[in-house]
Please model this.
Amino acid sequence: MNDLTIYHKKILELASANRKSLEINDFNFSKEVKNPLCGDLVEVRVNILNNSVKNLSAKVKGCALCEASAGVVVNYFLNKNLPTNDFMEYFDKWLTKNYHEYPSELPKELKIFLPIQDIKNRHTCIKMPFEAFFKSIKN
Model:
């Protein structure tokens, strides 16, 4: 598999939609995460009210994989209660193929990144927006 096959239509559409989205200005938590190896930068802004994500944005300066992943973050967590499970642990284990079946604790939307499982040097690209989200709400 080469790098071009990982940029399939669904990933490019999700990346494009997130790139066009606006950053929220009314937020009470935020986090910026940078990948020192490639320079990708993600800023997540979250407005939390009564333990629920009322508004959320994830802006990316980086590759389409990171941008698409940011789109999944926004689409999945917006207007939901704060997650209480060990999401990143499940995500890491799935990404490194430590599960035989897709974990029910993860959103089905992450399955678009299935081709990335075999490309370890791109794992950080899709994990960064999730890491920024979880670091921002950790407070």
Summary: The two ends are 40 Å apart (CA to CA). The first strand starts at residue 29 and ends at 34.
